[in-house]
Amino acid sequence: MNLFLETLIGGLLAGTMYSLVAIGFVLIYKASGVFNYAQGAILLFAALTFVSLTDQGVPAVAAVALTIAALVVLSVGVERLMLRPLTNRSPMTLFMATLGLSYIIEGVAQGLMGAQVRAIDLGIEDVPIFLGDILISRFDLIAAGVAGALVLGLSLLFNRTRIGVSLRGVADDTRAALSIGIEINRIWQIVWTVAGLVGLVAGLLWGARQGVQFSLSLVVLKALPVLIIGGFTSIGGAIAGGLIVGAAEALAETYLGPFLGGGITPWFAYVLALGFLFIRPAGLFGEAEIERV
Fold it and tell me: Which residues span the membrane (predicted)?
């Protein structure tokens, strides 16, 4: 029983790392209907900027502030140079634009800051701690706390501020939002900036776990089953999807791995997501689209 609980709790905590990546997708998809494939590249850009600044002797707090400033500039540039000219284009066109954007960001970031593997020290030791007889990773526990605080902050932003109301208005009906004077271009800039800040948090945690390197941008692929399971339009769904994926992967590796030769973790989440597509295509908390013909 202890093994089951330890595996389950460890998987749930690890799943919060997936949720952090998925939240960035949800924010942009809710506000603009764009599946932003470049979110992984933004995560890499944020982590690489931070570690490059700290390597130059910049204090961590100042490095975070400068990285946020760089993300704001990037967000404004994306809105001005890509989103605004492509307004009212098809979702596939916008998706392909973000796909190209991801390669541009990765190439420019690594060209300016180097492609070697960098280590991030957040002062969090990845050591085991005991809760009774259950062994838990301290790093995963802190990452879960950060994810919870981030979700609380985003909930307050969306539900208790004027900007949040505007964001939800644009997400619900873009034309109606425009008719009452909401500046959609400004909203897109804000959403991409917030998604960039989420990417910064995720990038720092993932970078501390596996180092800042090119493959860091590929965590975007791990967010796909999380989004399919939780839903593309719900921040809560991103958290729930991450927890489900993390727990399912850990339990499958422990209990099915010995019978299948191990190596279940890389593909099991996609099998789970495929099952959800058959049962609930919109995800647990997603909004099913209704088309009138």
Answer: 12-29, 34-54, 60-82, 94-115, 135-158, 187-206, 226-247, 259-279
CB atoms within 10 A of CB 9: 20
Class of domain 1-279 as given by CATH? mainly alpha
Copy the structure tokens of residue 215.
Answer: 């493959």
**In the structure encoding, which two tokens stand for residue 229, read together?**
């399971």
- Angle between helical axes of 184-210 and 162-172 (0-180°, round to 10): 100
Residue 103 CA to its chain's centroid (Å)? 18
Judge whether residue 293 has pLDDT over 70: no
At residue 134, what are phi and psi to the nearest 5 degrees? -100, 130
At 2, the pLDDT band (50, 70, 90 cuts) reads confident
Q: How far apart are CA 236 and CA 19, in angstroms?
A: 9
- Phi and psi based region of residue 57 (left: phi greater than 0; alpha: psi -120 to 50; beta: remaining): left
Question: What pLDDT does 172 receive?
Answer: 67
pLDDT, one tens digit per residue, over 246-288 is 999 888 888 888 887 777 888 888 999 999 889 888 888 876 6
| pTM: predicted TM-score of the whole model, two decimal places | 0.85
Nearest to 191 by CA among 40, 48, 23: 23
Name residues whose C-beta falls within 8 Å of residue 133's C-beta, 6 or more positions apart in sequence.
2
Q: What are 33's two structure tokens?
A: 């209907």
